[in-house]
Amino acid sequence: MAGLRYHILALAVVGVWGVTFVCTKVLIGAGMDPAGIFLCRFILAYAGIWAYTLLTGKEKKVWNGWKDEGVFLLLGISGGSLYFLTENTALAYTQASNTAFLVCSAPLFTAILTLLYSHYGKGRFASGLEKVRLGWPLVCGTVLALTGMALVLFGRGEVRLSAKGDLLAIAAAVCWAVYSLFMGQMTREYGTLTATRKVFFYGLLTILPFLEGSCDSLSPSVLSQPVVWTNLVFLGLVASLLCFLAWNLVIDKLGNITSTNYVYLNPIFTLISASVLLGERMTPSAAVGCAAILAGVILAGR
User: Fold this and answer.
1) For the chain, what is the largest distance between any 2 Cα atoms, rounded to a whole number of angstroms?
2) Mutual orientation of helices 136-154 and 266-278 as an angle, nearest 10°?
3) pLDDT tens, position by position, 170-206
4) CA dihedral sign of residues 232, 264, 171, 247
């Protein structure tokens, strides 16, 4: 029962992240571009985590050599700049539901990378991965969850496919799988607060080359719109700062496979938030899909 709270925490985080697809879509419609959204979002998160660090004085470990900094650079790219750049750009070319569905293939890539790296890799990262084998519960749960996501996505009857947007969403899923592969070990060694702060820093650092042409997106006339700054505050302080801290703790406590399987629930929360905020209606097919996703996550988690 001790681990139950981490499962509940994972569910809450994924619920918030499901809403972010709609928030980002709204920001793009209000005139912001993907790189500008990420910059504002992570500046807020980075400032917030520094403020919390200074107020509490909680630091487990800050420096352990350039090799570890290289790992944090990879995490800042895979879980920060490149992940959000591909995901946000995908939302500019395809529907939020399409993106949510395809990004939720992250658990599949995570399982594949974990099996390969734990078999062929060496050192603390390979030994620190969650132990997993390709059994029937994982296979059947994955198929059931994917079937449910297909029902959620295609059951609405209004899906417009975009090859560019869909491929970018898949690229985001691969990025998140790489992030899940290494973040758990770094959290155990550095602590949730320090590890998350380093990821935010390298995420901001590596987004800088993509900011050319974002001046209009970051102009006062755009940022001063209530719909813009309220969504940015939610994305920066709630979806990034609080949720990244919580998620990195979840990866540490539950393992990279079990925690990432919760990403399958993203389309449910995206569909609900799209219904409430954008006036979209849930079809009977989508309702069945939501139930299938939940059942698939429970089965795969076994």
Assistant:
1) 55
2) 20
3) 899 899 999 988 888 888 888 888 898 999 999 999 9
4) positive
